[in-house]
Amino acid sequence: MGDQMRRSMRILYFQAIGGASGDMILGALSEVGADLAVVERSLQELQVEPIRIEVEPCRQHGLGGTRVSVQAEKDVNRGRHLSDIRKIVEESTLPAAVQSDVMKVFGRLAEAEGQIHGQDAESIHFHEVGALDSIADIVGACLALRQLNVDAVRVAPLPLGQGTIECSHGTYPAPAPATVRLLAGFPVTFTDVPAELVTPTGAALLTTWHSLDHAPGTVRIVRDGYGFGSRTLEGRPNALRAMILESGEEGESLECLVLECQVDDTQPECIGHFTVKALEAGALDVFTVPVQMKKQRPGTLITVLCDPASRDRILDLLFQETTTFGVREALTTRTILQRAFESVETAYGPVRIKIGTWKGKQVTSSPEFEDCVTLAATNKVPVRAVYEAARCAALQLIQCPSSQEPKDPRGK
Q: Rounded to whole angstroms, how far apart are CA atoms 259 and 332?
């Protein structure tokens, strides 16, 4: 597996300088290693009119990068329902995992549009986003992301412009209502730029992919690059920067903060909710243990492991979501295995396998459960059947490790 076997975590980090759109995301991904020629060939698996990806170098305000344009010139149907898009995707020969990624993005778009127009998501008629070039933007971006073999995606606060935009419904304020709804709860910054900086497609892709609020500990910048939009902005490059970050080499002693508290009057449902929120906020792990507290009252010990940089965020959650009056803190270190990901073939489809290596030897492996759930639904079989098939394939993989780079991204 080459250099990939020496890493623990590989992160894709987006910073929007000018904004974010489907084309800009594709350009940025190509700058950090995605092969758009391979993406273009894969797009033909949609079995629609031919789709072309035009790539050209671009320079704005002293920054150099790539500008991408996706063309589907023979597309006469400029609007589609979610069911139409689902049919195009599911009837393609794209991998099941990519199909799932694509429909998650369109599902969020449909949900946002439905909330705005007071309709069910399935009833929404996509206009601009329903065109083949926009569909290809989303499918192409998901294909490109899968090429990069990243474990997590982090997106910095996105800049929003002002003014108005013209769309199929008429004149709307910038940013578009769908963009605002998609970015609800996501950090943004408002600018004086009189233009649409973040498109609905860009917002849907980045917020669907975003899985990490803060990079864990010290990281190393591996690659960086800029994807440019078609519009020229005054005072700033219309660029989206992408960076590949790596952290956690094998045997490295990583500093870790332990936060603990005991509660005997917090609803069990609230403890479960806190666990979910803490992991979303960047906690490395959260676990609970039943304990006997003073006056022999049964209680729960809540333990959170996190990067020291996440301390304030986790403390806020502990005090807001539980009934504790105090939290213990202790700095410690943790030693981690090298981690890498391989894709194995099963009778149900490809499944990603997380592989742990210690002192040059592969010592453990684990199928990615989300892949198993997706394939189980597709094949109408129990999840356990897919998991066991993947586990058997993983054992063979450890016994006969591949010399190739891992091909399937986005494990944890």
A: 11
Separation CA 128–CA 137 (nearest Å):
12
CA neighbor of 251 nearest in space, from 330, 405, 356, 341: 356
Q: Is 109 helix (H, G, I), strand (E, B) or coil?
A: helix
Q: Which of 126-140, 285-299, 396-410 has the lowest mean pLDDT?
A: 396-410
Q: Which CATH architecture has domain 338-399?
A: Roll (3.10)
What is the pLDDT, as a whole number, of residue 404? Answer: 42
Closest by CA position to 238, among listed 410, 67, 121, 30: 67
Instruction: Please tell me the number of Cα atoms within 13 Å of 301 on its side-chain side.
Output: 11
pLDDT at 6 over 50: no
Q: Are 391 and 127 in contact (CB under 8 A)?
A: no
**Distances 100 to 163, 180, 182, 208 between C-alpha atoms, Å:** 35, 24, 19, 12
| Confidence band, pLDDT 50/70/90 cuts, at residue 187 | very high
pLDDT digits (tens, 9 = 90+) for 138-168: 999 999 999 998 988 999 999 999 888 777 6
Does residue 77 register a pLDDT over 90? no
In whole angstroms, how far apart are CA 235 and each of 17, 116, 175, 232? 11, 33, 19, 9
CA–chain centroid gap for 39, Å, is 18
- Contact between 130 and 85 under an 8 Å Cβ cutoff? The reply is yes
pLDDT at 80 (0 to 100): 80
pTM exceeds 0.70, yes or no? no
Structure letter (DSSP) for residue 157: P
CB atoms within 10 A of CB 293: 14
Local confidence band at 2 (pLDDT 50, 70, 90 cut-offs): very low
Alpha helices of 68-119 — where are they, by DSSP H?
Answer: 82-90, 96-117
The two tokens of residue 377 are 């639904």
Asked whether 342 and 354 are in contact (CB, 8 A), the reply is: no
Name the pLDDT band for 403 (thresholds 50, 70, 90). Answer: very low
pLDDT band at 406 (very low <50, low <70, confident <90, very high): very low
Query: In whole angstroms, what is the distance from residue 112 CA to residue 204 CA?
Result: 9
Helix (H, G, I), strand (E, B) or coil at 241: strand
Q: Is 341 helix (H, G, I), strand (E, B) or coil?
A: strand
> Does the domain at residues 253-335 carry the CATH identifier 3.30.70.1380?
yes
Return the bridge partners of 345, or none: 350
For the chain, domain boundaries = 13-211+223-241, 253-335, 338-399
